[in-house]
Q: What sequence folds into this?
């Protein structure tokens, strides 16, 4: 709320003057968030960066509301398979109201695990050689 004082004077003779005070109320501007869609992921994918903007230009913050993920700043790290819901928020400031939160859900598929036995041979009558295998796609 601001107090505005207006003064007026007549340049003629005799000099007339008047003062009037007004109260002006300035309301905060509204804002919204645009959250770039997130494609489906697979457990074991590299961490990825979220992209959202507010119409006010103020910075957007993020959180994980549910699911197997953690977030640092705007970078998401998947910690398992399942459905992850992420939230973008902007709390406002002295000139802008808070924006409505925007949630996005994405599906994190299970990683594909492949086990391949290593090829070995043995001569008839000889002892069996050690049997070994190789794993790919294992995510810890």
A:
């Amino acid at each position: 709320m601001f107090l505005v004082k207006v003064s007026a004077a007549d340049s003629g003779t005799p000099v007339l003057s008047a003062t009037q005070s007004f109260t002006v109320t300035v309301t905060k501007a509204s804002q919204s968030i645009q959250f770039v869609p997130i494609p489906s992921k697979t457990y074991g994918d590299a961490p990825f960066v979220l992209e959202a903007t507010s119409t006010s230009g103020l910075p957007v913050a993020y959180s994980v509301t549910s699911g197997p993920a953690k977030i640092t700043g705007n970078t998401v790290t998947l910690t398992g398979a399942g459905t992850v819901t992420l939230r973008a928020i902007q709390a406002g400031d002295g000139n802008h109201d808070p924006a409505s939160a925007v949630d996005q859900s994405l599906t994190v598929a299970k990683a594909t695990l492949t086990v391949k036995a290593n090829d070995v041979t043995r001569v008839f009558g000889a002892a069996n050689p050690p049997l070994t295998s190789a794993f790919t796609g294992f995510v810890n």
Q: What stands out?
A: The first strand starts at residue 2 and ends at 9. The radius of gyration is 32 Å. The chain has a mean pLDDT of 89.
